[in-house]
Backbone:
């Protein structure tokens, strides 16, 4: 008996595994439609995380697998992303126009958190997501400099008093640095800082962002408490170096998020290794394996490890972060891999709270 061509295509696709979710494409809910017309198959896939960087790889894998296992000789493949929204917990006010809020944090300064935050935001955008970036460091905002926003440029104000975020390198950004000059000190007490953060969040016209990356200040103070108690944060990403002291402080940050029921979705280990540009020798200047030990202790994942490179710092300081400066370079590809892993981890968690999509199969 001849096998139904639609079922044959479905079986061929089901033999492929989504390496970020570690399930088959069918089980992940990505398969939305399969239609067969003679020797031609029309396949619609919609992933729950952005993955533009592996589009060609996916197309090749699916084409080879389907053509090898079925009579199909032509494939019309459509790949898109549909980023799910996280439900808003009772007692917390959602941010208009934002599906997911991701806090990028470290309890210790100097580990490259802001540089990581801006590059992850840019990487998510390169992968196909709509992204916003909020600089939550009211006392020492730095994202304006990193994004190359000229000093003195101010956000436009709508008639309804909402602020238009400033667009830079394909993302929307808001920072206290857009409101003040570089030499203006923020001599504010805690309640004023908390109020400023809430206004930047709620009064900015984010307008349909899949992800809002929040660059947190170091520590576990007023800003962290305000964000965790008032805002529906989807998850937190902890940035650390392998150094024992940095890992010790990172634990404090993780414990803080755990106390306020915000999941830590992953660890990013920064400055993990130094590679000599002359001889290629690798040196672990800040120790080795700190991020992995931290992830193992708290039951989370290492989303990625980044090397200690002068170019990462230089590009961020010049207002042209690595992902924007060299989208296909080695460092950029590392950030984009981190972005896909982060998006997939959020999608995995969302899948436990929302029903999966309905698969439609047709045979014309």
Residues:
């Amino acid at each position: 008996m001849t096998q139904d061509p639609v079922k044959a295509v479905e079986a061929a696709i089901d033999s492929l595994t989504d390496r970020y979710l570690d399930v088959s494409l069918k089980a992940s809910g990505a398969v939305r439609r399969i239609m067969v017309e003679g020797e031609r198959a029309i396949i619609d896939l919609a992933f729950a995380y952005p993955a533009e960087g592996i589009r060609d790889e996916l197309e090749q894998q699916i084409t080879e697998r389907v053509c090898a296992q079925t009579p199909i000789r032509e494939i019309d493949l459509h790949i898109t992303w549909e980023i799910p929204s996280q439900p808003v917990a009772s007692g917390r006010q959602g941010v208009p126009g934002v599906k997911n809020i991701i806090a990028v944090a470290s309890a210790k300064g100097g580990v490259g958190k802001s540089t990581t935050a801006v590059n992850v935001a840019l990487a998510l955008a390169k992968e196909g997501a709509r992204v916003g970036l909020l600089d939550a460091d009211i006392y020492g905002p730095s994202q304006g400099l990193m994004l190359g926003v000229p000093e003195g440029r101010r956000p436009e104000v709508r008639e309804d008093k909402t602020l238009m975020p400033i667009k830079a390198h394909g993302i929307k950004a808001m920072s206290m640095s857009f409101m003040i000059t570089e030499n203006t000190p923020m001599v504010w007490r805690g309640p004023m800082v908390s109020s400023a953060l809430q206004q930047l969040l709620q009064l900015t016209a984010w307008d349909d962002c899949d992800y809002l990356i929040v660059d947190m200040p170091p520590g576990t103070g007023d800003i962290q408490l305000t964000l965790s108690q008032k805002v529906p944060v989807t998850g937190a990403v902890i940035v650390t170096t392998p150094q024992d002291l940095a890992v010790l402080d990172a634990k404090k940050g993780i414990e803080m998020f755990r106390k306020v029921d915000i999941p830590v979705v992953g660890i990013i280990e920064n400055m993990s290794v130094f590679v000599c540009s002359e001889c290629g020798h690798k040196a672990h200047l800040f120790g080795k394996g700190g991020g992995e030990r931290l992830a193992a202790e708290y039951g989370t994942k290492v989303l990625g490890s980044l090397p200690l490179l002068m170019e990462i710092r230089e590009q961020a300081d010049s207002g042209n972060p690595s992902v924007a400066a060299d989208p296909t370079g080695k460092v950029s590809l590392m950030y984009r891999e981190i972005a896909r892993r982060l998006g997939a981890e959020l999608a995995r968690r969302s899948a436990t709270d929302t029903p999966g999509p309905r698969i439609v199969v047709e045979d014309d």
About this structure: The longest helix spans residues 330-351. Confidence is low (pLDDT under 50) at residues 354-364.
